[in-house]
Every structure is written in structure tokens, then in C-alpha cells.
Amino acid sequence: MSTSIFGPVLSRRFGLSLGVDLVGEGVKKCNYDCLYCELPKAKKVSSIASAKAPELIAKEVEAALLKHPDIDFITLTANGEPTLYPKLYELALMLNEIKGNKKLLILSNGSTICDAEIRKSLRLFDVVKLSLDSALDISFKKIDRPLETNPQKLIGCMESFRGEYGGTLVLESLFVKGVNDSKEDVVALNEAYLRIKPDRIDLSTIDRPPAYRVEAVSPERLREIAAMLDKSLMVSIATRKSEGSKVRSFSKEEIIYSLKNRPFSVFDIEALFDEPSKGVFEEMKKEGLIKEREVAGTTFYWCF
Ligand code: SF4
């Protein structure tokens, strides 16, 4: 069997990360068939059959950690959906034994969150990232094309998971033009976010060739969507491409006003501030005018 390890990769959202693929070579194993998926289309499945034993994966991770001692995260992902791996609980226990000061992260599509056994496994992770592309039935089915389930049920289970999980919960919503980017979609997602109370929300769009003929939303539309969300939410827009974002000049007063209005992520500063404004921002940090907090590898800034 081939190795399960890839990377380290430098991710804008999570820092330096060692990837662990729980599916391995061959066709994708997923219970969704997302319009935006970058993997080739495949029949939907509800579990990963013929998966590698957790002991073998843990040994590979142990060896990789010796080679790459500077990583921030051990990231469980898959050529498909990682929570369909049948020995997730055992594997997470083993990885927690050997991870040292690294954080254990899983990138899941969120589809299995109503399963009590999966939730028990997820509680072993330092950071859990779940996808929630829509809170409306029609858009959800259009964009994620799930094997089964519906968004209201998932949102309820995500809310319950939040109540029982002490780690860092990140939600990701990926927007596809004309599919889940309407005002109704954003309003419904905002309500869902407020119910679930994640530590961080990542908004994104297509940035690699997708399986189907669909289009990304513009950087401006992502910013409009972020601006429609409740100001208490920690929202990050992190796409691989930042082109299209227009940098602007901000005075000290404008920075204070903006950061009092809502937290800005490090990506907002990169994308929106011109060089002189970044200089002003750095000075304000030194003067102690700006508060900051790191949430699973992404720093947020705000003023009181
Ligand atoms: S959940 Fe991930 S792997 Fe599965 S179809 Fe969607 S994008 Fe692809």
C-alpha cells in the first residue's frame, strides 16, 4: 500500500500542515458529489472499504514527524470524506499519543455529524472543520448533491456537537455563482452560524478546476456576503487567489472604526489595505490599540 502522508503543505488557513490521506490511491470515496469538487466524479459511498489499518497510518505519521518537526497541524483528510474511515476513533487516539505539541485537525464535509460514534471521534481532535455550504434545502441539494440527509438536520447536530466539544470548531461555506450565493442563502446561513456558534467561519469559492461546469463568485461578492453576516462572527475569507481585491488607503480613525464594527482576519488586511495603511496598522498594534486572537492558524484583529 502507498504512503498515506503528503506534504507538509503551507495552508493559508491552517499554517504548516502534514496531510494524512485516509482513502489513498484510486477513486474518490465520498457521500457527496459537490458541484465544485476538484476530484474526478465517482459513485457516492457511505463508508471507506479496504482502508489501511490505523497502526500503519500512525507509524507513517510518527516517521514523518521526525522528518518535519516544525509543522503546526497533522491534518486528516481524504481523497473523499475522512469521517467515512471506519477506524477513525482508534486512529485519533493513536495520533494523540504521538503528536507532541502539534494539533490534530480533520477536514470533514460535515455529513456524518449526526452519528454519535463519529462525534465521539471528532471530540478527540484539537480542530474540527465542517463544511456547511447552504442552510436551505434546495441550494444544499444542488451544490453538495448528498447521498442522503438535509441541512436542517445537520445544523441541529452541529449545534449539539458545539455544546459537547471543547476544541476549535471551524465552519466552511463555499459559494458557487448562481447556486448558493443569493441573499436568502446568506440570511439562512447567518442564522445557522449563530445557532452553531463556531470559533471561525471560512468563506471561500472555487479556486481549482471543478468536476462540473460551475463558476466561482467574485472576491467582491465574497466580501458582500461577509458584510451581511452578524458582526459578532469571526469570518475569514481565504482563497488561494487574491486577485480582484482592491486595496485601499485607511487612516488610523478608519481602521479603528472598521475594527470596532467587526473583526478583520489577517487575509482581510492583506487584501484590503494598501502598503501605507499596513504601516499605520502595524504602528497601532505596537501602541496596543488593536486586540488580536489566533483561531486555528488564522489571526483576527479588532478594536474595542
Ligand atoms: S465533500 Fe469534498 S470530496 Fe466529497 S464531493 Fe464534496 S468536495 Fe469532493
Strand content: 15-25%
> How confident overall, as mean pLDDT?
91
The rounded Rg comes to 19 Å
If helices are DSSP runs of H or I spanning 4 or more residues, what is the number of helices?
10
CATH superfamily of the largest domain: Aldolase class I
Task: Characterize the biggest β-sheet.
Answer: 8 strands, mixed
Give, in order, the helices and strands: EEHEHEHEHHEHEHEHEHHEE
Using the 3D structure, state the CATH architecture of the largest domain: Alpha-Beta Barrel
| Ligands, ions, cofactors | iron/sulfur cluster
Per the CATH scheme, the topology name of the largest domain is: TIM Barrel
Tell me the name of the CATH class of the largest domain.
Answer: Alpha Beta
The coarse overall form would be globular
Q: Any low-confidence stretches, pLDDT <50, length ≥5?
A: none
Strand order of the largest sheet: 1-2-3-4-5-6-7-8
Helical percentage:
25-40%
How far from one another are the termini? 54 Å
Q: How many runs of DSSP E, i.e. beta strands?
A: 11
Query: Which structural class should the secondary elements be placed in?
Result: alpha/beta
Total domain units: 2
